[in-house]
Structures are given as C-alpha cells and as structure tokens.
Amino acid sequence: GHGKCDCGKCKCDEGWYGEACQYPTTCNLTRKKSNEMCKNSQDIICSGAGTCQCGRCKCANPEGNGLVYGKFCECDDRECIDDETDEICTGHGKCYCGNCYCEAGWHGDKCEFQCDITPWEIKKRCTSPDGKICSNRGTCVCGECTCHDVDPTGDWGDIHGDTCECDERNCKAVYDRYSDDFCSGHGQCNCGRCDCKEGWTGKKCEHPRSCPLSVEESAKKCRGNSNLPCSGRGRCECGQCTCFPPGDNRVHGKNCECDDRQCENVDGDICGGHGICSCGRCICQDGWFGKMCQHSRKCNMTEEESRSLCESADGILCSGKGSCHCGKCICSLQEWYISGDFCECDDRDCDKHDGLICTGNGVCSCGNCECWEGWNGNACEIWLGREYP
C-alpha cells in the first residue's frame, strides 16, 4: 500500500523503502520499542540474522539469494546446502525453513543417501492397513516407519507397529491423563482397542454394566450441547460428569462446559486485569475490549501511525484477516482460528487430541500449543504432574 508495482519490482512512495515498501524512512518508534517488536521467542533480535528497522526485521542476504527469511529472520535455508555438492538438499528434495524434505527414495538431513529399494517398494512397506503412509503417525524412511511417539515408556511407546497402526492413546479418555490407567482402569489395551473386564463396557471401558442407562444414553446425557461427553474435560459415568483436574474449580458446569482457564493468558492474568471471567469468556470493563480485554478503546495515534504498525512485512494490513486499532491488529472474530500480531497465524494448525485443540490443556499460539503448567506434548496431551486417585 506504499508504492506501485513495476515489472515485478516495487517503486515506493516517498517516505517508504524496501523490496515491498514495508519500511518507513522516518520511524516514530523508540529504539527500545522497535527492538522489542523484532525479538523472536528466545528474545534475540531478528534471530541474530538481520537488523531491526522500525519494528520489522530486515534479514541479512549479502549475496541477494534470499535464503534467510521469516518475520524474525528465523529461517535459514543455507542449512540445507550440502557441503560436497553445494546444492540445496543435494538436488533430491526441497528446503523449507532450513529443513530438507526429501523426494521418494532419498533420505538424510540433506537428502544425501539413496535407498536400496525402489520408491514403489518403499511406499508398499510403509502403507498401513487403512491405506495411509505410516498411519499418518510416523515418517517413512527406506521402507521402515519411525513412529512419532509422544510417550515412549516400557517395551514400546504409545504409538507402535510396523506401520504405526497401533495408537495406545486411543485407549485413554481425556480424564485418564491424570493417571497411568488405560481403558479407564477397567480393561486391557491391545493395539489401541480396549478389551474390557467383566462388569464394564464402552469404547474405553468407562461404562458400568450395572448402570440402568445404555452407553449411548449415558454419553448423550453427559454431552449436553457439546460434541464430546463432559465437553472433553471430565469423566462420564452413568450419565454424570466429574470435571477434571480434580479440585480445580476453574472447570465447572453440569457438563464441564465452563473452562475459566480460557480467560487466562500464559502468565496467568485473568482477562488482562480489565474484566471478569464468566464460563470461560471475558466480560470487559468499560474502555476495554477484545477476547482477553487486551485492547484499550482510547488511542493517541494518528490513523497513518496506527496503520504503519499493523502492516506485515509484505505490506498487507493485518494480513487481510483483521482490522487495525491503535497500532494493533484485531483479528476477525468470525474466524476464531486466526491469531498473531499481524493475524498471520492459523490456529487450526495446532495439534489436536480427542478432537480438542491442544487437548484443552493449553492455548494455541501461532499454530503451536503453549501448555499450561503440568502438561506437555505437541498437543498438551501428556500429564507431568502428580497422579490423581
């Protein structure tokens, strides 16, 4: 929005420069504020691979090859160059943010090793009974699956089998993560399927046969308006929910539908200190708005100053997925999954377990789960705290 495109190159308006006219020649930010905006998650300015220009990173590419890039210059595709051939991924793969993704029949950090069997045979050996490569739970290298195991304990981890077809996590309900019990403690897990003890039934042996309700009736009563029994936050037994974590009154409701942890940010602040939490939603004080009451309605910036802080590196205002208020992007409320300082993140990319993003045990931050205390795993599915009865 600060220039014109001429034959594939930007001709910038007065007061702007850069390959996408993204940098103002006059900066209204202090050096401290500018540097804060350029810090990556490790608090390193532009990942040590560029310079900070008015709150935006300018990556160092002295050879003009564009191999260093990203919002914080965090991607360095020079890592993909093979020392012997000087080719990216040895010419047998593609590089994405410093990592090689190899063509069929090649493997290694830089796709430097060739498999001794044909690509067809590789695919055949790695294809699981459901027709997926390594059951979508592992990586196929030369006909052998390496499973993406989240909890490697005992003789094998939660995910195992020649084609990663066995997923023991299927034997665990959400509430079971507070103990080591599979199949609700009432059965044996065999390749991701529960074989129940006498007196118990259900997919995860959660239902006592003595209950006058059927498994379906019990689950329906526990679901309420949710898609999952007890909203995926508690144990359903004979139509009644017990919310978890035990003793944590932030999760409550007949069907555990209220999760007041959703009102907290990663620092534990409730509604940013500018509102109250009601059943997992923030009710903001006058003068504040936003999902976490993080935006003040007052603003001492001009419209132009505000817009300049909301433009991403490509020059688009809030990535075209939100509106700009006082130098900050407010992402579209209709598209709940859009987040990030410039609305550049898609939280649908966050890992799920039992159908819940971050298993309900953390918040999704720019496509990655940030787990609450006591939880770990890509989807915050592993409980690291003490066991519960």
UniProtKB/TrEMBL annotation:
Keywords: Disulfide bond, EGF-like domain, Glycoprotein, Integrin, Repeat, Secreted, Signal
Top-level lineage group: Eukaryota
Localization, UniProt: Secreted
Gene Ontology terms: biological process: cell adhesion mediated by integrin; cell migration; cell-cell adhesion; cell-matrix adhesion; integrin-mediated signaling pathway
Primary site of residence: secreted
InterPro entries per the UniProt record, alphabetical: EGF, EGF_extracell, EGF_integrin_2, Integrin_bsu, Integrin_I-EGF_CS
PROSITE patterns in alphabetical order: I_EGF_1 (PS00243), I_EGF_2 (PS52047)
Record flagged with keyword Magnesium: no
Gene Ontology terms: cellular component: cell surface; extracellular region; focal adhesion; integrin complex
Domain annotation EGF-like: ranges: 79-112, 125-165, 170-206, 262-294
Molecular function GO terms recorded: integrin binding
PANTHER family reported in the protein's UniProt record: INTEGRIN BETA SUBUNIT, INTEGRIN BETA-LIKE PROTEIN 1
Record's protein name: Integrin beta-like protein 1
Species: Opisthocomus hoazin (Hoatzin)
Organism placement in taxonomy: Eukaryota, Metazoa, Chordata, Craniata, Vertebrata
